[in-house]
Model the fold of this input.
Amino acid sequence: MSAQNISVERLPKSRVVCTASFTKEEQTAAEEHALSHLASNVNIKGFRVGHAPADMVRNRIPKDQLLEETVRELVRTALPAIIDEHKILPVIPPKIEIVTAEPLSVKITFVERPVVKVKNIDTLKIEKKTIKADEKDVNRVVESVLNDHRTSTEVERAATENDRLMLNFHATNDQGTEITGMRAEGYDALIGSNTLLPGFEEQLKGLKKGDSKSFTLTLPEKFQEESLRGKQATFHVTVTKVEETKLPELNDTFAKEKLNAPSAAEFRSIVEKSITMQEEQFDRMRRERELMDEIRKRTDVEIADELLDEEMRGLIDEWSQQLERQNMTIADALKKEGKTVEQAEADLKKQAEDRWKLRLGMAKLIEEKGVTVTDEEVAASGDNFISGLPEEQKVQARKEFDSHGNLYEELRWRALVEKVMEGLLA
Done:
């Protein structure tokens, strides 16, 4: 079955509009197929589902529904020939609209991959920093490790810097009412660790075992409980124990016995290398972000509204799922962020445009630079990805990957992108 009297018009933003009219014979044949398909959902007394006479089924089905199914059948059959004959390269499913019912004529709107230019990519250079571990960072890590081996001795004196105190405490608000969730017994506090609320540890200095004290602090603006941020809280503390603590000395004996290192100097060298590697990873991530930003900025392309709409639907789905995990709705999020629906839509459209620009810019670079990946490279990427999945997801993922489904294509794309990035960052 093929469409007759096809007219093709190429429009801006990579749109191709085909208007196709069908003969009465083609429409009748397609309608019979449509009726047969729709009959499987029609229950008529005295007949098994799908076995009722066509006329009876026709009377039970709304005319609009039958027409839509007929058009779907006609277009499904005619589409491959239209695409092949007119050399159309769609990137998303086409939009189908009925122009007239008698004679039947439809408009099919395709969106092709747009023409893309990536400007001045040969001049793109992302600065690579020379990484060297800072001595202060090395000392901080070493001190943290030594803290894990800190020894304690109970003392009968007033607490001072580096002493560990065992506390019972609770907090009240400015009305004298206890604040829920701010009561603890047997709480371990080390003066000078800077792990408690600002000012808390300082208030513990001078206290002895059995002492009680009340003091008021202003809770930080980033306090975990939003309703308490910036508010005052009065803490009522009782000390049940004071211990003097002592850090071990980082010497060769301690390094060998406790840190599994040949010497103190070698342990510091290990720490320095670890910090350097971490900083190099951070710098690599920075360079990758800057490179993607530059590719997006240098990509010149007109993006069809249909592509943006599809990407926005994906973004909304991602956002909805994220909010659902937080027990929030989109309305809740908009209220919290102080945004209108129109502002949120504008933000999503900008995100969608940025995603398409980056995706199309990357694809253009892959094409221009002739970047390819082997089956072995994609297979290794698949093995690595699937091995990191929860057990209950591995079988389905492996099936999809081995059948060259969406997962295979996604990982193949990632491998291509990584090769392009590697070349540009080298």
Remarks:
- Residues 60 and 176 are 72 Å apart (CA to CA).
